[in-house]
């Protein structure tokens, strides 16, 4: 019988060789794949996570990845036995497990589809919001296109509302009394995006990720969360932004050389 996520993760943390109240598990990312380990993995970008032995519920260190089956491997590293869910050279199978990762975030792929720019949708409101906040008009339109397809009456399964698909708490924080008012939603979304761009020093990728999955998720993963929904959303918004800039007469952005 395969262990469940709590059992497998608890075992992973308990495999450390010393008795402590909180144990360290490393969350390692390599080529967009995630693993958990008792020591940093060679070739991976690893962050240490503390697992409290007395916690009522085992924390979700994977992210939103659905249900999948995996393997816990053991191998020697720097003269010690370490354990990881990645099959690295010299590894031996230790046990099999099944993980059911909960969503845990308001992330979604968005309700709008990538398509041709729609410059006539709420054009006056976007222009005014961009002027008031200093946020690129094309960027605001890309967000709205990805979020709702410009539908002022859109409501997502997660509870986001309006053109900019603001969650209720966010709408309240940014002064949106009627989230289904296109003008209020666009103004509130622009103010929220201004705050995100300020937080991330103008990094639109991180701002888009936080708009989708929340600031907490970006902080926790120290970058774009590995959720399938968020990765798809960021890619969608980036593509739309280039299309809107081109349609609005701006030069396309290219990587620095």
Automatic annotation (TrEMBL):
UniProt KW keywords: Signal
Signal peptide (from-to): 1-22
Any Pfam family: SLT
Domain of life: Bacteria
InterPro entries from the UniProt entry: Lysozyme-like_dom_sf, Transglyc_AS, Transglycosylase_SLT_dom_1
Keyword Cytoplasm among record annotations: no
Domain Transglycosylase SLT: 126-223
Gene3D superfamilies in the cross-refs: 1.10.530.10
Family to which this protein belongs: Belongs to the transglycosylase Slt family.
Protein name in the entry: Lytic transglycosylase domain-containing protein
């Amino acid at each position: 019988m395969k262990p469940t996520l709590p059992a497998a993760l608890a075992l992973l943390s308990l495999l450390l060789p010393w008795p402590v109240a909180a144990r360290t598990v490393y969350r390692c990312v390599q080529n967009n794949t995630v693993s958990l380990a008792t020591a940093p993995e060679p070739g991976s970008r690893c962050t240490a996570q503390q697992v409290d032995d007395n916690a009522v519920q085992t924390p979700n260190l994977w992210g939103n990845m659905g249900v999948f089956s995996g393997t816990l491997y053991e191998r020697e590293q720097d003269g010690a036995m370490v354990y990881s869910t990645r099959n690295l050279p010299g590894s031996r199978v230790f046990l099999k497990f099944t993980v059911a990762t909960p969503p845990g975030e308001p992330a979604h792929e968005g309700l709008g589809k990538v398509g041709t720019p729609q410059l006539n949708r709420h054009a006056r409101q976007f222009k005014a919001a961009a002027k008031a906040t200093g946020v690129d008009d094309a960027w605001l339109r890309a967000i709205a296109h990805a979020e709702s397809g410009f539908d002022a009456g859109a409501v997502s399964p997660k509870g986001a509302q309006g053109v900019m698909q603001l969650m209720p708490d966010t709408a309240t924080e940014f002064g949106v009394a009627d989230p289904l008012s296109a003008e209020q939603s666009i103004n509130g979304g622009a103010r929220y995006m201004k705050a995100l761009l300020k937080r991330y020093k103008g990094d639109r990728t991180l701002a888009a990720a936080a708009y989708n999955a929340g600031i907490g998720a970006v902080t926790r993963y120290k970058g774009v969360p590995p959720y399938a929904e968020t990765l798809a959303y960021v890619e969608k918004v980036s593509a739309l932004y280039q299309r809107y800039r081109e349609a609005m007469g701006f030069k396309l952005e290219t990587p620095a050389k």
